[in-house]
Design brief:
mainly alpha; Hypothetical protein af1432; 15 helices
């Protein structure tokens, strides 16, 4: 198939992708604003009975160890925090995309979601060390969606993993992103960007999805956030929570120290911290998904 035909088919796949629910879309809009309040999240959750039920199920589970049952949305959101609310909402709406195997990357079912979740947690941890103002929950939300393009692109990369890795090892291509471009005329960050526009996600999230491998190319308002997700993405792959054959086939931008007070030794500590948090959050989300 020619590059033009590939791009046409990929564009159709983006248009056919399931839309986010109105509540999930609004949650992402709100959480992307630096000046939002938790009350904004609570008011929105109250409008969605399914999301409310899932939150109450998680907060009252044995894993939380509460002595008294929580029955109000306000108490549930205050206890669980914004990141858990956004995670449950996004998981509910993107299950069809995030749960399927990434055959084009030789990734297993659910592997993409685990990678997104770990990246979100790590990006949030990185954001706490920003030299400027970067709300950690905003970094979490951006990390949770950064690789959505792979869910679409995977189908068009089937059977290419071995040749891509050979090209990288032999120095014929710089990284997996470049290999995607040479084979399809675009890469997963571009596809994710187009899907983010299709979903009408906030401009800042669109920018991060587009530039998470090259955060220096993001526009000025989004650049620090893009670097946080870039680091979170690398930490996720280092933890073993990659998306398959492309894991560790990208380059860390060494100039991240311009934006964060993080040494290389501290990156290792953030990896340990994020792994511990990931295990807790993953267990809680598994409870939410139980029927």
């Amino acid at each position: 198939m020619s590059l033009l035909n590939n791009q046409t088919e990929i564009a159709r796949a983006i248009e056919a992708a399931p839309l986010l629910s109105p509540v999930a879309s609004q949650l992402l809009q709100i959480s992307a604003k630096a000046d939002h309040e938790l009350k904004d999240i609570i008011d929105l959750v109250k409008c969605d009975s399914i999301l409310t039920a899932r939150l109450l199920k998680v907060v009252n589970s044995a894993a939380m160890g509460l002595r008294h049952q929580i029955s109000s949305v306000e108490h549930a959101v205050n206890y669980l925090g914004e990141r858990m609310v956004v995670s449950i909402a996004v998981a509910e709406c993107t299950a069809e995309l995030f749960s399927k195997p990434l055959d084009g990357y030789e990734g297993e079912s659910g592997q993409l979601w685990k990678h997104e979740l770990f990246t979100a947690i790590a990006a949030r941890a990185v954001a706490r060390h920003a030299k400027g103002d970067l709300p950690p929950d905003m970094a979490f939300t951006a990390g949770l969606l950064h690789d959505i393009g792979k869910a679409i692109l995977s189908e068009f990369l089937q059977g290419t993993s071995r040749s891509v890795l050979a090209d990288i090892v032999q120095g014929n291509t710089a990284d997996y992103l470049t290999a995607e471009q040479s084979r399809l005329g675009l890469d997963h960050s571009i596809v994710g960007f187009e899907l983010a526009k299709h979903w009408k996600l906030p401009e800042m999230l669109q920018q991060v999805i587009r530039h998470h491998h090259h955060p220096d190319q993001a526009d000025s308002p989004s650049r620090v956030l893009a670097y946080a997700v870039h680091l979170g993405d690398i930490l996720a792959m280092m933890s073993g929570n990659g998306t398959g054959s492309d894991s560790m086939q990208y380059h860390l931008k060494q100039d991240y120290t311009e934006y964060f007070n993080i040494s290389k030794d501290e990156l290792a500590l953030l990896l340990l911290e994020s792994t511990e948090e990931f295990n807790k959050v993953e267990a809680s989300l598994a409870i939410a998904e139980e029927k």
